[in-house]
Design brief:
Belongs to the aminoglycoside phosphotransferase family. Helix 4 (133-150) packs antiparallel against helix 8 and helix 4 packs parallel to helix 9 (262-269). Strand 8 (220-222) and strand 9 form a beta hairpin. The protein has a domain at 122-287: Alpha-Beta Complex (Aminoglycoside 3'-phosphotransferase, Chain: A, domain 2). The protein has 10 helices and 10 strands. Strands 1-2-3-5-4 form a 5-stranded antiparallel beta sheet, with helices on both faces. Strands 6-8-9 form a 3-stranded antiparallel beta sheet, with helices on one face. The protein has helices at residues 37-43, 83-93, 127-130, 133-150, 162-174, 185-188, 191-199, 243-257, 262-269, 275-287; strands at residues 48-53, 59-65, 68-76, 102-107, 111-116, 122-123, 208-211, 220-222, 228-231, 238-241. The protein is an alpha+beta fold.
Length: 289
């Protein structure tokens, strides 16, 4: 039950049109959550708490009581989330930086799941850090820079390049799977044709790094000292222009802490604002993988 291979989902076959970091829907659950039987069986009587729910029906549970605890990430088949891809990325990235260590995984007809050891710290959108955005946002920027510096581009087996993402987006458009009503309000008025036209004219590359792939605030962990101490949710990690991460990380500061924090994140990263690249990569993020 706790081992074996996970089914690989090709993102070109099952486009994902939403993000775990959606500013409205993805969050710590504030209502009762039914514990899937497989998670309950693994817990074997230990306390189980749902700590995160994404926009596609996936759930993350904390099992046990700190410090003797672990996390179970559970994704229904209907989500299209490829936990096998995330496991491979975590195992590779763990050689270079602080990410969760996978200690078990499995799948059945209904869902797939993975079990990870805890890292120190808490995510950047807990009550404590939302009340101290200056510290949280600085930690996000410093942590993202550290991640980009630590992960080696040469030899990275994972791709999140502009070219691959544009292929995905164009195919999703041909299949009728893009829905502007689900985009951020600043992009909805473009319509599908307008958005694709803008994406057809990308900015020049700045610097290729191994990007996190989902660099929103909840995926940075912050320690007691207020410094970043790890990253989670690396399911789309891969080589790309660093602005693919920076555009989304800075955008997420507004979702989670309110306006005025984008430049703080960029300062902590050590880079000047770039309006053109920011606009482009936010649009690409909104439309596709």
């Amino acid at each position: 039950m706790w081992g074996g291979n996970l089914t690989t989902v090709n993102p070109l076959d099952e486009p994902r049109l939403h993000r775990d970091a959606d500013p409205v829907l993805a969050s710590e659950p504030d209502d009762a959550v039914a514990v899937p039987p497989v998670v309950g069986a693994f817990a074997a009587g230990r306390p189980v708490k749902a700590v995160w729910r994404n926009t596609l029906g996936g759930l993350t549970f904390e099992v046990g009581v700190r410090p003797d605890h672990c996390f179970v990430k559970w994704s229904p088949r209907s989500s299209g989330i490829d936990l096998g891809a995330e496991i491979a990325r975590l195992e590779w990235a763990g050689r270079f930086t602080s990410v969760p260590r996978i200690v078990g995984h499995g799948s059945d007809d209904d869902a797939s799941w993975m079990i990870s050891e805890p890292l120190p710290g808490d995510n950047a959108v807990t009550t404590r850090w939302k009340a101290d955005p200056a510290t949280a946002v600085a930690a996000m920027g410093e942590g993202l820079r550290a991640l980009h510096e630590a992960l080696p581009v040469e030899g990275c087996p994972f791709d999140w390049s502009l070219e691959s993402r544009l292929r995905w987006t164009r195919q999703a458009a041909r299949l009728g799977l893009l829905d502007p009503s689900r985009w951020h309000e600043e992009h909805q008025g473009l319509g599908i044709d307008g958005a694709l036209a803008l994406l057809a004219e990308p900015p020049d590359l700045d610097r290729v790094v191994v990007c996190h792939g989902d660099s929103c605030a909840p995926n940075t962990l912050i320690g007691e000292d207020g410094r970043w101490c790890g990253h989670v949710d690396l399911g789309t990690m891969g080589t790309a222009d660093r602005w693919a991460d920076l555009a989304v990380a800075s955008w997420s500061t507004a979702w989670n802490y309110g306006p005025g924090w984008e430049v703080v994140l960029l300062d902590a990263y050590g880079i000047a604002p770039d309006a053109e690249r920011t606009r482009y990569y936010r649009l690409l993020w909104d439309l596709g993988p």
